[in-house]
Design goal:
Layout: H1 2-17, E1 26-34, E2 37-44, E3 55-61, H2 74-85, E4 89-93, H3 112-135, H4 137-140, E5 142-152, H5 154-164, H6 166-169, E6 183-187, E7 190-191, E8 205-210, E9 220-222, E10 235-238, H7 239-249, E11 253-259, H8 273-285, E12 291-297
Parallel strand pairs: 3-4, 3-5, 5-6, 6-8, 8-11, 11-12
Antiparallel strand pairs: 1-2, 2-4, 7-10, 9-10
Length: 299
Amino acid sequence: MLTNLKNAFLLISVLCYGGNLLAQDKATYIYAEKESVALELDVYTPKNIKPNDSLPVVLWMHGGGFSGGHRDSRNEVKLMKNLNKRGYIGVSISYRLLLKGSKTGAGCNCPKSVKLDVFKQSAIDYLDAAKYIITHKKELQIDPTKIIAGGSSAGAEGVLNAVYSKTFLIDDVSNYNNVSFAGIMAFAGAVVDADYISAQNAIPTVLFHGTADKLVPFGKAPHHYCTPDRFGYIILDGSDIIINTLQTLGTSYYFRKIIGGGHENSQIPFSQLDQIFNFFNKTVHQKENIQTQVNITKQ
C-alpha cells in the first residue's frame, strides 16, 4: 500500500512539476518511510524559475512539541510563499511526531531517555529530508551548497541538533556525509550540548529567543525547567549559550534577544524576515563575517 501511495505522490509531483516550470508552485514528495508512516515534504518553487536555475533553499521544520503541528499550516505556507518572493525554494517537511498521544507530552513527566530519543529521531528525520533534496537537486533545481536550515520551537530544537549535535546523537553520521548546511535560523530552540559546536561545523546562525521562555531554556537550564527530582530533568543549551559559543569561534550570527519574552517568540517572525535574509545575503552569499545582537524589551 505504501508503494502505491508513494507512486501516487510521485505522479502528482511530476504532473505539477514537469513540463511547465513557470507555472509550478508546490509539489509533494515522500522522502522516507518509517514505522509504516510515509514522511512527506512540500517543495515550493518560484513561478519565474528558469530551466537552468539552481536556487538557494530553506529546509523548514515546524513546531508543535513533537506531538502536533503540520508542514502546511497557515504560517508555514505563508513562509514558503515569502521565500519564493525572495528567490529561494522553500521546503516544508513532515517528521515523526513521537510524542503525539503521549500522556506526558514533552514535560517533566516525560523521561529524559525518551526526550533524548525524540531529539535524536527528529534530527535523523531532518537530515533524511536534507539528504533527499540533495539527491534530487537537479530536478528540484536547488543549490546544495546554499541550504538554510530553519525551524521553530520543537522544529528549532530538531534543526539545531541536526546541524550542531549530530555527532552526539547519531551513531553513524557517515550516512550524511553529503549533507551540509550554509546557514541556520531557529526560533526558540536549544541543543543538547553546545560543546559539540566547533570551528568545523559552525555556520552563520540566526536565533530569536525570549529570556523568560519557560519551555525551551534561553541559557543553560533544564528543559521545561523541570526540577532534578523529575523524570524529565535534562539540561539543554539554549540560544544564549549557542551565541556565546559562535562568538568565541568568530562565526557570523544574528541574535534577537527579547528581554522578558516567553515561548511566543517561537512564532515565525514575519516582520523580521527582511533583516534575517539580509544577514544571509551578506554572510552566505557574499561571505561577509557579521556578529549582531539586538536586545528588545518585551512590551
